[in-house]
Every structure is written in structure tokens, then in C-alpha cells.
Input
Amino acid sequence: MKLAGIFSDRMILQRNKENHIWGSDDADTVTVTVDKDRYEGKVIDGRFDIVIPPHDAVKDIDITVEGSSKVILHEVCFGDVFMLAGQSNMELPVYRTLDVTRDIVDAADYSYIRQYRLVPDNDYKPMEDYKLSEDPWIRAVPGEIDEMSALGFFTFRHIYEKTDIPVGLILNAQGGATIEAWMRREDLEDCCDELNLIEENWGEGYLPAKVTAQYEDGERWKDRARIFDADEYARSVPSDALDVQVPGMYRDLTGCSWFYKEFTLTEDVKSDSAFLYLGELVDMDVTYINGQQVGTTGYLYPPRKYPFEASVLRKGKNLIAVRLITQRDCGGFMPEHPYYIEVDGKKTDLRGSWKTVRESSTDKDADVRMMVMYPVVLYNSAVKTLEGIGIRAFFWYQGESNCLNADNYNLKFTRMIASWREIFGNDVPVVATIMPDYINPESEDVSFVPPEWRNMQMLQSEAPKIVDNCYVVDGSDLGEPYELHPQRKAELGDRAAIVFSEVLGIDG
Output
């Protein structure tokens, strides 16, 4: 017997709504026991789907599923389940916000706020062939909380504190996802000119293989840009290196460059560990100190936070060498971010004069179209696959990937929510987020938020006017300069909790 991936220990099911438990087996019938109540269903063509009638809120019970074998699900709760959908700012994990939320996170111990991370089975294939990922339900407790949706946790901690009702978060937000990916085909027929992509990429495994091949091309691009001997260039500043100011963004940087910063320690190092913070770099880096690699990041967005063994350091002069790989024309060290090294409790500011030398100049790397940018794919893999799971409300944070293609966005949003409600119930409310201000640091003019971004914020603000039982949380003022993924998710969660309290009818 095999249960669908969402059904595991510590799961949370929606209270006071019908739920289903399904999977596959070769027995004739399967029974599910919830508390002392037994529910039975037939196995048809190797599959079963057992209906669980509405159940009051309860904590930590066992659910037993019996067919050809027995599976006992431990510490199951009935509470309130929220679907967190959208793209990377909903997906952003708690650990990416610790610069501004450390005190809250270190004190967090909410064993009844739990999250199931849905990893979508992205593909174009018959619906019966999609599967829910087998990922555990994690809790907002030390050792697990770091991987939770930051916005989800910072929002629903307030709700749990008010209600003492278990909170289940189904996180199926996907970085880079377009709204078209979350929609069903019939709702896109008159407002999307890319539906041909479904037929062009039809067949199990075809789309994943295609996108994987594109990423492999990107790896080959990086290989072509690799010319210098890293062991040599990480240890000393070349004689032909030029002066440069860091932080800063630089044009005509496509390919690889090395950046160097010397700093002096006046005392012997006493600690076992040290820490390097390099703000955010465009695009990828491999970073060395005194010739030893201390960190690497393979894409643009995460802040470079590199703990390393302090034995790498020495009294006197030390050298940081950053090999920067830039995929497009513009790259560098983003302004308005911290740049420092911390040793023995003392921080050394790394901003100011650096040295640089070019390793290679190449053509721009080809952009990869992510699977979550293809129409319909997430509706199939991350929405329709949840049919049978009770949902209390939707929480939507998306729009970044549609800023340059916002035609009919509100029409699409209206149709998307209507199709979701056909699956999960017409009474399911939706709370949408207005994105924080953002300026792309690669822009020619960084003095203003682009009009395309402003337009999307305006469209998001109109959501309650076009969709019934829809609310918005305004995060437009919670951005950080040049930061696509601002860390101020606790503040945004505070605001969202106020909205959800109204949605859920919670006093106080």
C-alpha cells in the first residue's frame, strides 16, 4: 500500500470540512480509522480514495490506514490549512530573513504550526500520472523552522497564538512562477498565446529533460568562461589589476572577473570560526581567503553569508579574492548591502577600494525558461493534485514574473481563483499581497521604481474589487534597495495576520 505523499506523520487536515485520504494498493478494500471511527472504500484499478467526514479540531491523534498492509500516521491534527502559492517571496525560507528576525526565530517554538512543502511534479502528462511529493511535515520549532516559508510562519504564528488551533501550511509557491502556470488551459484560451507549448512539450519526462539540458548548457558556458588557474589567482593580486570601488555595479562585465580586497588583522586570531558577509553579488561567485575557498553561490539572489574556519586567517595582511561570474552585461556588488568580515567579535568593513582583473569576456549566457514559467503546468502539478484536501484560505504572493507581461493580469487572477474554488470550495477566501518596491540594480537608471513594477502593484491593489471574498496585504513600503527578496517578512506577516484575523473572524 502506498499513500499519496502529503499523508505522513504530523500532517494537519482541515477541521470541519470533508477530507480525502488516497493512494494505491492491490487489496480489494481499504479502511481508514480516525479516532475510533472507521471509513471504508473500494480499491479500483489499484487506487483508493477514502472520504473523511468533517472533524472537529484536535491535536496529535493517530490515523490508521489498512489494506494489504497497515500504515499508522502519528501526531496528526485537525486544524486550519492554508495554501501558500505564488513565487519566490512566498517560498523564501525563514533562514533567509535572519539578519532582521533572529530574535523572533530563536525564540520560536510552535509545534502546532506545520508545513508541507509541495515539490511539484512539473510535466505535461495525463492528470492521473501526477504525484504529490513525499516530503515531511515540518514544525516551527528549533531545527526545523529554518526551512519554513518566512511569510507563512510570521503570519500564522499570530493566528495560532489567538486561536490555539493547529495551523497547516501547504507551501507550493515556486520561484519564478508566472500566473499562467497556475491556471487551467480553458481559462487561458483567449488570453495567452503560448498554449502551443503544451503540445510541443507533451509527454512524461520531456519538459524536465528539455529544461535540464538548458541548465547543462549554462554549465558549459561557465566552463568556457573559466580560463585562469584559480589556485594561482586566489592567492595574490595580479600586477595588472585595476582599482575599483565596492560596492558597485559595472557594465560590460559578461564572463569572469576577479575582485581583491586586502585587510589587516592587528592581533592573532583566537576564535575557531569567522564570518564573511558579501552582501549580494551579480551573478555567481567563488570566494577565497588567503587562497582557501570559503564559500560559493551558484545564482544571483541569496546574500553571501560565509562562515569559515578562522585558521585560514593570520595576523597581518589577509586577502579576499572573489571570482565573479556574470551571465549578462551588468554585474558586481549590489549597493545598500553589508560587506564585512567578523573575527573575534570584531567587524572589519570591506567597502571601499578593491582591485579587479578580467579573466574572460564572453557572449551572454542564454536565459533558461524555468518549468514553472510554462502555462498550466502548476495548475496540474500543484493545485489539481491537492483535490480532496480541505483548505481554509489561499494566500497568494506573485507578480514579479509577470511585470513585463501584465496584459489581462486581473482577468487571469479572477479566473485562476474561480478554478481553485471549483476544487476546494466556493467559500474559500483569498488574501493577496502587494509587492514591495523594487529597483533592478542592473538598470540603466536606478533612481526610480520602474513603471512596469508600479503597474503590477496597482493591479494587485485592485484584487478585492474584481474577486469576491478577496483581501490584500500592502507590502509596497517594506522593500529594501535593489532587493528582490526583502527580508522584512516579519513586518509583512504582522500585517497579513491582521487581514487573516478579519477573514477568519478572529477577535483581537
About this structure: The chain has a mean pLDDT of 96. The chain is about 20% helix and 30% strand.
